[in-house]
Amino acid sequence: MKAAFLNVNNSPLAVPRKRSATALAVLGAALTLSSLAQAQTQKSPTERIDELEKRLEQSLKQIEQLSTEVSRLRNAKPAPAAAAAPAGTEVSNRVAQQDAKIEGLERQIEQINESTSRGLKFAGVPLHGFADIGAGTSRQSNIYQTGPKGFTVGSFSLYLTPEFGDRVKSLVELVVEVDRDGSAVIDLERLQIGYTFSDALTLWGGRFHTPYGIWNTAFHHGQQIQTSLSRPHFLEFEDRGGILPAHTVGLWATGTLPVGGARFNYDVYAGNAPRISIDPATPIGTPGGTLDPKVAGAARHSTTVGFRAEFAPRGALEGLKLGVHGLRANIDDDSAALNRTRLSAYGPYASYNNDQWEILSELYKFKNRDLSGATGTHHSNAWYVQAGYNTGRVTPYLRAERASLNQADNYFAFMNSGRSYNATSLGLRFDLTPSVALKFEAGRTALRNVKLGGGDDHFSEFRTQFSIRF
Questions:
Q1: What is the pLDDT of residues 174-189, one digit of tens each?
Q2: CATH architecture of the domain with residue range 127-469
């Protein structure tokens, strides 16, 4: 839903300069709207409704009276042509007075329109929300903590987009999540303030989703907006086991440029490098780390830098997007050895989205260098492909994903989810309304070379989710 606010760009207060009863009607409407913003404080809801009804009735009466007066002035006819010269002068003066009176009313309309529009533009904050609940079961892995069993409460997300003029904007995403132990945690997932110079450049500052690939830029914490129930494992958010910094605190420049019959979209960013935070209770030699985005900075500062470049053709290929991305950061961990790794991730991505098909694919190649030891440079990769077909209200989808992560690389070795795997997910999404989705998803994952002797560990999951947005 949206909090009470008006879009002044579409407001009926923007009137042309013409002399008609419509102008006076707009004046009455402007007077009414101008008073609304001042009459809603320190009163109960019932009192506010009564007050609004009274003001509306008074405004309608005022509009009727003003319209009658304008009609009278419009229909006033000059004296007969046979009248004496003094009479003709009197008629001319009367017409001039009428014109001056209407001109004055028009100036009042413009002044009230300007002041009222300014006030109404900031009278409310666009507010959106997302929530989801679900249930699931899984065949537990011996070494991997799979999803919860039974009924669950997912997350509740508040998504606000207050604006402060034509160029200054902001975005706030506040999420209440339920951890595995059942405790509710409030996370400020995004807080960014931006200034739009033109379509070619908007500069943001704060905490934002790191703009790499497709998934992390297109889908946020509201589960209803993504087709599938789950994200690819390696692209999960940091606290859910993701192996990439899904959030960055810093500066981000983005924009769109026309290129012939196509669009070129770009992102360039820099911010705090994350740290691999390891629970002190984790047994030595056991991976247990997660990425910490360092929202408040760090004693030993390091920087993440990255880019994304995307080509989006029009015409017959409308809906296709082709791009490349890359990021680099020096990342420390909390292990006893205090390792430092230069993370370098890059790769192509592609998506196609029309009224029926949604196809997403991303490739990430890693070339990580050990900066604190002598193990050198390590290569890894991860990718996924997902396809869905919308039949109207039902969308079946299939996803295949794979991660081949070098365990000699400290960046992955000390991370809880830094293991190689293959996974397949098959799902069905039902759109009960444009804002409500019911999803069913079955998946099977094989963790590679994790058992003693180099064997794989398999587990399966089945989950359902009911998600909404407002």
A1: 999 888 777 888 999 9
A2: Beta Barrel (2.40)
